[in-house]
Amino acid sequence: MSATVFIELKFWLLLVLSVIAPVTIYGVLLAKRAVSWRTVLVLGLTLVVIAGVDLYLLQALAEAAKTTPSLADDAVFLSEMTVALYLFPALFAGVGINVISHVLVRRLNDAERKFERDHPDA
Fold this sequence. Notes:
This protein has 122 residues and is mostly helical. 80% of the residues lie in helices and 0% in strands.
């Protein structure tokens, strides 16, 4: 048992997944002038997966914080501040779902237009 959850791998993984990975994904999506729909779809799905992993890590860290003698991790993972930490996964999941929805709607619109061109009498 460690003295605090802040030195555990789960905490650092949470930090990387909550800050570095999403900022990198947003940067790629915004910096590119041309991005294929497959790339956008994969990045959207990645954001949703990151949100799920973040939720798991937050739960695991909250459980671990209960068993440590440190009051600092209790203040972060076992208090009202935890609600603020859950906003990150909610944001990532919301943006990821929006990106996935955008790709799907565009693909469906393209398919409808192609069908109308191929079947003008329908």
